[in-house]
Amino acid sequence: MRYLMIDHILYWEPDNTIVGVKNVAMSEDFFEFHFPRFPVMPGVMMLEALAQLTGWLHAISSNFREWFLMDRIIKCGFYGFVLPGDQLELKLTVSETPLEGRRVYSGLGTVRGKKKIVTDFQGRVLPLDELEDPEAQRHNFNVLAREIRF
Predict the structure, then answer these.
(1) What is the DSSP secondary structure assignment for residue 148, as one 8-state letter?
(2) The pTM is what?
(3) Is 34 considered catalytic here?
(4) In which domain, by residue range, is 28 found?
């Protein structure tokens, strides 16, 4: 199963920051078990959404030659529940770069302006063509960023 966690990209500044949205629907598979009778978006899914958003930032910043893979969470705090019907706004910014080929990011997730997740994480950058078809990803980005008019 593949979860595509970003529903809309609102803003980006190459090599610096990106803002996206995850619309949380009651039909999400993870709500079946997390938790019965009290559906809450798992924190790891919020982290995954931020990781995917970081991938999109690397893709657009490198003309769809690179993608980011998170492999270390430096710190992470959760500040309330994300529930069905919420719109989780995700923002991340570039932090320091510790080593060649690695990147560090700070992420923030909010619902209606209220903080839900704050995290710093790092990972590595890989050639996008080793993971996905770059042109298909360019098309997907254009859909998410509403660069394509239907």
Answers:
(1) S
(2) 0.94
(3) yes
(4) 8-144
